[in-house]
Amino acid sequence: MTFFTSNIITTKQFATKRRHFLKKSLLAIGTVIAMSTSVMTMHTASAAVGEPEKEDLKFGFIKLTDMAPLAIAYEKGFFEEEGLFVTLEAQANWKVLLDRVIDGQLDGAHMLAGQPLGATIGFGTQAHIITAFSMDLNGNAITVSNDVWSQMKPNIPEKDGKPVHPISASALKPVVDKYKDEGKPFKMGMVFPVSTHNYELRYWLAAGGLNPGYYAPHKGDTSGTIDSDVQLSVTPPPQMPATMEAGTIYGYCVGEPWNQQAVFKKIGVPMITDYEIWKDNPEKVFGVSQAWADKYPNTHIRVVKAMIRAAKWLDEGNNKNRPEAVKYLAQSNYVGADYKVIANSMTGTFEYEKGDKRDVPDFNVFFRYNATFPYYSDAIWYLTQMRRWGQIADHKPDSWYMDIAKKVYRPDIYAMAAKELIAEGKMKASEFPDFDKEDGFKAPQTEFIDGVTYDGKKPNEYIEKFNIGLKEKSKI
Asked: What is the pTM of this model?
């Protein structure tokens, strides 16, 4: 059989033609001024960003709803408006994703907030990774199996026939003690050793009187289970529900939609959201290697510009765009979960026990509350938790925490992207921090489940406040 193809343009040819047309159109607008690659500060005057040094980019992500800024920047054409032609590719797990950013197979990726920090200080893989963009606030929850939930419920106060939230881990403690008395370890899952989920789960357990265990990398022990009441292990996010259903773990901390999936499958109960553990906590970041950022500074700023616009689109109009966003995320090339499962949390609600759906408008925050700004204080909080649980084996002075935060988190690059958007009339200055006054530190934060106040400028003082965890001079 013969096919006549002489007048047919292939998809690849069409994309190439469209790309060249867009490049000419987009980059011909205005005068292109080359940006200096010298050290920039948040207070640098805005200058037009030059052409992207690299146009064809591949970014990685894990199948979670908080990868949404990447999907929206792609689907709404924000990347293309910056002269960038992006491929988004789901990764098998967080380690693979990080390794591929380090070796250059990926230009950048949706990352756990702790990954650039962990890599830069050498916990696990050693590499200098930076972030100039925070992808979201909140978005996680802790889920337990139906069996564990039934054992916990007698320990949880109720009002109008429903559990009173937030639920303390003290309600889980009798269940864990029972397992210990029977000689069985109580196992829970989290997604990666330097993940928000690991630190949130540990924080919640410790606040309820349960020791989640310590790391001792200086002794070659990176299990994180030394002296543990609850044994935590790594499970990739999409595998969490099935792993719990199989009985390998009895609960987990993960991002959406994998807590709501447990509700829909009737295999577990999400007990508490991270919003209730630490209100408006930073979650994912967009990470690139320092070498990549040095080589492609204009490209980097343009990527951040596109993602800022995507984040704003996700939150604007009281989340009016979320249903459309959920349609994109439900596609198999993004999250690939059922629309209803994703919408259960992305559209301003969260379902705990089956039928117990509550309004949580800030369960996912992408732009409001300066969510996209990479605060040094956010970085330092993660470092304090690494020290608290032994991933940082030795005491470090406050100055060390400041130095690492400034090495990894780059509000200067973010500010340049924001100023460009303001100059172009795409955003308003009022939508961003005041860059002339901003020092990169949030005011002391008080809304933690245990009531402990966090001041990012006093990391060692903060670490000393906890009953469970390493203290200033202690070492495993």
From this structure: 0.91
